[in-house]
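Regression test case RT-17, inverse folding.

Input:
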C-alpha cells in the first residue's frame, strides 16, 4: 500500500534514520492513559496517540494533558469500526465527529489517522485521501491487546524494531497494566541500541494538524 499510495499511506519512516515512533491506540481512558503519560514523561519520550472520539469528552483532561506534554493526537474514528465494512458516508462521519470532539477539547484539527484493526483496502484509502487524512499504520506490533504480560510484549516488539519504525501499543480498552509495566524496559533497551524517539509527524515529515 505504501508503494501504491506514497503520499497517503505510511507504515514506517525512512530506513536511513535512527528515529522511531511510539504510538498508542484506543484511548483516552481514565486510568492507563495517564499512567502511560507518566512513563513517557519520566523517560522524556514523545509519542503519538490515536484517540477514539466517543471517549474524548469524558476524558478531556487526559486529552489535554497529552497535548500539553508535547505528544501528538490523531484520529482513530468515533466508534472503532472496521472501515472496510461501512460505506463512504459512514466513514466520513466517523472521522468528522471525532475531529469535532478533539477540536472542542484541544483547539486542534487532526491531519493524521489510523484505521481500526489496520483495516484498509483501496476504497478506504481513497476515501481517507479525499478527506485529506494521512493514514498511519505500523511496522512493529506489541500485540498488547492479546498478550497482557510484560515478557510477551517485549518479545513481540523488540525483534521487529528497525530504523524508521512505527511501534503499536494500546492505552485501553481493558487492562493495559502490562503495557505500562513494559514501557520503561522497552524504552531504555531501544535507547541503548541507539534509537531516538520522535512523534509520527516528525518521523514522516508530515503536518500533524490542519
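Golden output:
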Amino acid at each position: 500500500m505504501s508503494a501504491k499510495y506514497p503520499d497517503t499511506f505510511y507504515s514506517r519512516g525512512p530506513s536511513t534514520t535512527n528515529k522511531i515512533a511510539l504510538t498508542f491506540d484506543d484511548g483516552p481512558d481514565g486510568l492507563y492513559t495517564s499512567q502511560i503519560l507518566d512513563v513517557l514523561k519520566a523517560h522524556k519520550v514523545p509519542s503519538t496517540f490515536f484517540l477514539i472520539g466517543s471517549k474524548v469528552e469524558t476524558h478531556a483532561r487526559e486529552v489535554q494533558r497529552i497535548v500539553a506534554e508535547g505528544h501528538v493526537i490523531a484520529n482513530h474514528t468515533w466508534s472503532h469500526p472496521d472501515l472496510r465494512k461501512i460505506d463512504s458516508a459512514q466513514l466520513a462521519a466517523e472521522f468528522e465527529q471525532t475531529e469535532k470532539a478533539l477540536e472542542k477539547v484541544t483547539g486542534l484539527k487532526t491531519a493524521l489517522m489510523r484505521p481500526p484493526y489496520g483495516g484498509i483496502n483501496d476504497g478506504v484509502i481513497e476515501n481517507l485521501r479525499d478527506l485529506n487524512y494521512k493514514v498511519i499504520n505500523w511496522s512493529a506490533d506489541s500485540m498488547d491487546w492479546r498478550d497482557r504480560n510484560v515478557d510477551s510484549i517485549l518479545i513481540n516488539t523488540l525483534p521487529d524494531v528497525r530504523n524508521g519504525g512505527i511501534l503499536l501499543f494500546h492505552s485501553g480498552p481493558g487492562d493495559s497494566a502490562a503495557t505500562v509495566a513494559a514501557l520503561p524496559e522497552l524504552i531504555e533497551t531501544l535507547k541503548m541500541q541507539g534509537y531516538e524517539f520522535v512523534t509520527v509527524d516528525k518521523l514522516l515529515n508530515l503536518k500533524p494538524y490542519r
